[in-house]
Amino acid sequence: MRNGKKPKGIPLDSSIITVPKPLGSDVKPKKLVLPLHNRWGMLKLLVRPGKDVSRGQLLAEDERGVAPPVYSPCDGKVLGVRAWSNFAGEEVPAIILQCSGSTVQEHAQKDTGAWKKTDPHTLVKKVQKAGIRETDAYVWPLAWRLAQPGLPPTEIPNGPDISRPIEYLIVNALDRQPGVTIRESALSGRETEIAEAISLLEHISGTRNTILAVRKGQPISDSLERELRQRGIKVRMCPPVYPIALEPILVQYITGREIALPHGDARAVGVTVVDILTALRVYRSIRDNSPAFSSPLQLTIHGSENDYQTWIPEGILVSELLEQLQFNYSNAAKLILGGPLLGFAQHTFDVPITAEVDNIIIQAKPDVFIYENNSCINCGYCVKVCPMGLMPNELSRLCEYENFEAAERQFLFHCIECGLCAYICPARRPMVQLMRFGKREIGKLREASQEQ
Asked: Residues 401, 252: contact at Cβ < 8 Å?
């Protein structure tokens, strides 16, 4: 795909995009569940069960200094550490906290502008220590993607390659999938804060080419345009096509540069992508000199007239959030964490909401799409729509019959799990789910071989 060429995908009808309304009540959890495992490994536990903890206390960290640490969002007590299902359905060790005191809520603070006098290396260390996890599954954590050449957030052997300067900083204000509008809503009413957040990232990364990616036709206030223009921040209008907001597609559309998949890093081609919501969390963390405890969430309840959005303390269970909102979910037929196409269906409402989840969907029985165990009819629709140029029909069949070696040879790990193949399949095959299954099984086989 050439620079600026409209990518493959599903056109979105921008005329029906609406901004959700905020929830009216504060979210005050009684219990939080904080996973200790992430894509970069296991964190070391720093507290013992039964011990009291205070808000902002460090609970777990990566001894290598790569993965973001975990802090307590509340005053309370460590009830224990045990396996708990995360948003992707994986059983991982997690800290269970009983909250007995205050929790962190979104609140406005007067900006002192102190970060403008702080050197980028000190700031990138603050980003690393802030405990910021992100919705997109980037190859490396945020601090490593922002660090200037020769100035890593921590000194570790065989760390990420940050030798190449960041030539493009793309702040992604595109919502990741249909039905999710939380990023578009973030651009309303926070003009100065958004401009400051982008300027902060620009200062840390040392880039001179900063781009705010927004949807074509998306309304941007005159005050935000003025703030961005004064700071030399460009605005790039992108076509309303899913999945343009995902990193490999967005980087190629805006810069013409191609990330080497399956484990490629945009930094290797001189680009760093940061979600606009992440930018706000970084700014608030550094402004308030506090860890990033809370994250934004959109709640979509089918059958209701509106979607809702709020900032929640990380680790709150879906069940408790809904109970606090006085929503009776006993008759709900399906719960999806992560959005309609990128998300994961859940088998329980007792699953923690972490920063990897930006959208929760609750469906009644008539709204549920049922996949079927049908054979592929070789219509080719999935091949036509795949933004990565793969053959999802072949890959899903190989994974279905556990021919994982052949699937890997056919570029299984180049799949970005956008879900378009499953969405468009007339045979109603669970294609993206089969490919996720294949990736996990290959990962398990690799772990087992390494242990031998």
From this structure: no
